[in-house]
Amino acid sequence: MKKETLEVIRNNPIIYQYLRDNSSWYKELNRNSNVVDNILKEAKKYYKVRGIDKLERAIEQIDMITTFMDVLK
Question: pLDDT digits over 8-54, tens only?
């Protein structure tokens, strides 16, 4: 694996943790170091830190608060 790829991995905690959890990606990185972007996309989906995941979480919290308010009425 190239040094530049290792630096990108170590400087991005999401990718670093994802690779620790899903080590099968190391095989892809050894074959082609250009898959770092794909790994980042998969890691964001895995840890639910994409924009759409944050929006869904906010909607769920609003629904929970609404339900709680209805119970108190």
Answer: 999 999 999 999 999 999 999 999 888 999 999 999 999 999 999 99
CA-closest candidate to residue 41, choices 33, 32, 50 = 50
Beta-carbon contacts of residue 21 (< 8 Å; ≥ 6 apart): 46
SS (H, E, C) the chain: CCHHHHHHHHHCHHHHHHHHHCCCHHHHHHHCHHHHHHHHHHHHHHHCCCHHHHHHHHHHHHHHHHHHHHHHC
CA-to-CA distance for 63 and 56, rounded, in angstroms? 11
Q: How far apart (Å, rounded) are the C-alpha atoms in residues 30 and 65?
A: 48
pTM of the model: 0.78
